[in-house]
Amino acid sequence: MNETVYRNFYVGSKIISGRYALETLSFELLQQNARRPLCLIPETEKAAAGTIRKALKSTVTVIGAVLICGRDESDLPEKIAEVYREQNCDSLIAVAEASLMYAVKSARLKLSAGKTAAEIGRTAAASEITELPPQQVVPLFAVAVPSVEATYYPHELNLGEKRILSPALFANTVFVDPRITKKASARKEWRKPAAAALMTAVWALSDMQSHPAARACALSAIGQVCEALTARSRAEQTRLVCNAQIFSKTALINSRPFPAVELLPLIQVSEEVRIGILKTVFEKELTGLSFGYADLTQAVLTLCGTGSFDNSSPQTVKNSFTNAVSALLEKLFPGKPAAGSVIWKQTAEALPSSYLNDTDLKNECLAFLQSQIGE
Amino acid sequence: MKTLPYFEFQSKVKILAGDGRLEKIGEELEKLGSRCPMILSSRTIARSGIPEMIAGGYRQGMSTGVIDTDIPADSDLETVKRLTALYKEKNCDAILAIGGGSVIDTAKGVNIAVSLDCPEGDINPYAGAGMVKQKLKPLIVVPTTSGSGSEATIVAVIADRKQSKKLIFTSPFLLPDIAVLDPRVTVSLPPLLTAQTGMDALTHACEAFFCLAHNPLSDSFALEAIRKIAEYLPRAVASPEDTKARLEMAIASNLAGIAFSNSMVGMVHTLGHTVGAITHVPHGACMAILLPYAMEYNARKEPERIGYLLQALENEKIFLETPKEQRPRAAADAVRRLNAELKKLTGGAHAVCFKEYRDRDGNSPVTEELLPKIAYEAVNDGSVFYNPEELSREDALRVLTAAYEGTQLN
User: Into how many domains does chain A fold?
Assistant: First the structure.
């Protein structure tokens, strides 16, 4: 028998996106038997507390406490757990940035398992986390903003050298509400997260064995970025990009793309390099794929105003798609994309030497990068 | 194509898909903390050796608590009560449902009873929307037909025969933990059933795409499902042993299930539910016949979305070469061609219109005289709310008449 196996697929969080998404907060909390959330707000997003209060007005939900969280508070998980207990809270609402998300996950482990995240090692994670009390004991609600960074994985707790990966760490619900995202957009360039989402989606697509559902998520992400280009308001643009980030990340965590991708999200490289990687991936990794890009190609080309394309064969459609995405990137970042071996060299230089105990994987990644550089 | 400014999406079921996945169930049970699962299934499945394949993957100290195959075609409260007692008697700690919609719904019912400790297994107090508010015992499902998508839904329908009513339970906690899609459980499905269930899945995907609650993720799931069904359904009907086609159909059905459970269905189900209730024509057969008519009927309101289905049903070349205004009709015709091909592959058994549908005894359960009654009752079905175009009784009759005769809808 010729065996066909796809990778497993899992989306741990419910996604609610759109204007007044936050008005469903109370309903979602009740679904988890929760009525008294602890609200965690980054100090840069203080105004979000008012928006959440307004959304919960006239509902049975009572905010147990609001905690303003600083970026560099090393004892934040302990602090969250303390306030949670003191105020008799039964759930968490987090206006999420990557750093706060990690702190919230760590606090949740502390509350549920009585152990700090640091006490749970990567290898022991699976068994320890399945022994956690039922998830509704400490529901985690994340209100996403477009600053969801490349290092943010919804089921991951990053402790520097250690990483805990578990489906139990997914937030129950992710709310994408333009009233929150528009505040972030005032100080954040929406095009950068858009490009990051595109790149993530492309990485996921480069896995030939990923489940078709993962591919569907990646294609949705690209579609949302295309739609963002013509969205009427900045708030809507950032909401669409935020959707794209969630979709593309969902695709990526259910895929195993070419080896270097294991490391790339952890590497601090310039935006030009990231865009360059995206282009290179398109050119080198996607040429062998066997599904139609006509719809997306058409959408991208229309948005870029470059008209129709050659659809005489699947290969020309794929080529057109590659060109269309290059055009899209050019539109997002005029004149910026780097190219060729330079990007891989910079990537290799950016590899954190402390990361990964898995020598084989690291060597595999380095070999891949060297092959791209041509050394 | 623009997406709507608001959507909700959830699909918290882990999906395992591929040959040999049945043997991975043991590993998954272990991760879920189970050592003694109860298996609910049909006699045919039990005889097919599938439980043994699953047991072959059990970890040390793990064993099947009990296998029960006495599950009626429509799950009911009495069966749930009986199985709840059995679950407790055998000290089970998880449920493994191998079957179609009825087996899966029964498993969800039993899971409510054993997890929430319902006295005498009575789950009546939990009927309704959102009444189940906590995580239940582990539930793994292995769908044996590629059509219903039950493994992806938050719903369970259980009959209360004493009260002559159907109880509907909806809660995100009713979603199974894991869905296992292994082609070996569907290869024994006969060609006609394969065709009908496959067209059911196609209808889920198409309606998810063009009905009112579509969203960007359900769109992509639906399009992937449609592409797969267009390619692999004829293959699975023509060659039931083709495991590649069976696997792709199982995946397509699952994708379509996820899509429609997040964006609802429309008038194909509105009319199909009533045709099925009054005439007992199988659900999949109703879907197959009615789908192209619903596409034509809704083309005025949703020309772009219905036209876009042509790309998935055929290919991008045909889509791009077809003038925009002709795409909706061309998409409906593509479904008709698929139906015609399935009819040929099943030796004429797969009906393309109600007039030619025959039951097992060779009778025609759908008659022209019944159509006004069907139209009258159909418009009360809840699914009509998500249909893009309003559906009056007169319109429903017009659609049913065309579907009866097998003529295009003007």
Answer: 2
Give the strand pairing for A65-69 and A37-42: parallel
What's the topology of domain B14-184? Rossmann fold (3.40.50)
Do residues A86 and A222 both lie within one domain? no
Which residue in A has a C-alpha nearest to residue B29's C-alpha? Answer: A130
| Higher per-residue confidence, A283 vs B180 | B180
Q: Are residues A142 and A253 in the same domain?
A: no
CB within 8 Å: A216 and B31? no
Is A217 near chain B, with CB under 8 Å? yes
**Interface subset of A 219-238, CB within 8 angstroms of B:** 219-220, 223-224, 227, 236
Q: Where are the alpha helices (DSSP H) in B314-370?
A: 316-321, 327-345
pLDDT band at A68 (very low <50, low <70, confident <90, very high): very high
Instruction: Name which of A13, A25, A169, A211 to mutate to probe chain B: the one with the most chain B Cβ atoms within 10 A of its Cβ.
Output: A211
- At A129, is the pLDDT very low, low, confident or very high (cuts 50, 70, 90)? low
- Give the A window 25-44 contacts with B, CB below 8 Å: 30-33
> Which residues on chain A are in Cβ contact (under 8 Å) with B21?
5
Residues within 8 A of A (CB atoms), B 256-315 only: 258, 308, 311, 315
What is the pLDDT at residue A132? 40
Q: Check residue A337 and give its pLDDT.
A: 45
Do residues B48 and B188 make contact, with C-beta atoms less than 8 angstroms apart?
yes
**Which residues span the domain enclosing A279?**
188-373
Confidence at residue B232, expressed as pLDDT on a 0 to 100 scale: 97
Structure confidence at residue B285 (pLDDT)? 96
Distance CA A9, CA A127 (A): 20
What ipTM does this complex have? 0.90
Among B148, B87, B157, which residue's Cα sits nearest to residue B116?
B87
pLDDT above 60 (res A153): no
In this structure, what token pair is assigned to residue B74? Answer: 């429509």
pLDDT at B116 over 50: yes
Residues B111 and B139 sit within 8 Å (Cβ to Cβ): yes
Neighbours of A83 (CB within 10 A): 17
CATH of B189-405, one of 3.60.15.30, 1.20.1090.10, 3.30.70.330, 3.40.50.1000: 1.20.1090.10
CATH number of the domain that residue A25 is part of: 3.40.50.1970
